[in-house]
Design a protein that fits this description.
- The protein is mainly alpha-helical.
- Among the domains are: about 90 residues; about 60 residues, no CATH class.
- About 65% of the residues lie in helices and about 0% in strands.
- It has seven helices and no strands.
- Helix 1 packs antiparallel against helix 2.
- The chain is elongated and about 120 Å long.
């Protein structure tokens, strides 16, 4: 079966059926109108006829197109299925053919020379008869932990100064803290031991602290 020829026939038949259906619809409509109203047609009938015939033409045209399109799709699927079956048969016949290359398992083993492939030459670097060469020791970085650069010393000095200032500010804050004074203790640690925070806990205290722009803003 020539599928291309069959598809072309279906397409030409679709166009022919469309023309015949339009002619049949128009002639039937005019015949019915003349039988009922004669040649003296009322205006409403003329108006309805003018609207009905184009709409009917479009509907019939779409229906016929869809009908033949389904037929063409079935024919195309049949063609593709047949081609797939042919391809599978060709593939099976190809697989059954003997290969031109023999399936040989080659022997694979490790070399007997632990130091590498010297191939029996004594002056090779990987030869078993070569002299032993120990790795050289690099002493450039032996004291890298103990020796400080100028930048490292500067950073450590800055950290020390900052820590001393922070300690002074912390002590001043504890001395002037109203809660510590009222509790009769010397520092924040002693205030925590008294259970002051458990007795005076407040929901959303941390959130309120950030809303008041106090503390460490993250």
């Amino acid at each position: 079966m020539d599928y291309n020829l069959e598809i072309a026939k279906l397409q030409s038949n679709a166009e022919l059926v469309k023309v015949l259906a339009k002619i049949a619809l128009a002639s039937t409509a005019f015949t019915v109108i003349i039988l009922f109203f004669g040649f003296n047609l009322p205006d409403p009938v003329i108006f309805i006829t003018i609207l009905f015939i184009p709409v009917a033409f479009v509907a019939i045209n779409n229906y016929i197109t869809r009908f033949y399109q389904i037929k063409i799709e079935f024919l195309t699927n049949d063609y593709l299925t047949q081609q797939l079956e042919i391809d599978e048969e060709e593939l099976e016949s190809t697989v059954r053919q003997d290969s031109k290359f023999p399936n040989i398992e080659y022997l694979r083993n490790r070399g007997s020379d632990d130091k590498g492939p010297a191939f029996g030459i004594a002056d090779k670097k990987f030869s078993t008869k070569g002299e032993r060469v120990d790795a050289t020791k690099n002493r450039d970085y032996d004291d890298i932990v103990t020796v400080n650069s100028e930048g490292e010393r500067l950073f450590r000095s800055a950290d020390k100064i900052q820590s001393e200032k922070s300690a002074v500010l912390w002590n001043k804050s504890e001395v002037s803290d109203q809660d510590i004074i009222e509790a009769g203790v010397d520092n924040l640690g002693d205030l925590i031991k008294t259970g002051w925070f458990d007795r005076n806990k407040q929901e959303g205290a941390v959130r309120q602290l950030y809303q008041d722009n106090e503390g460490n803003q993250i």
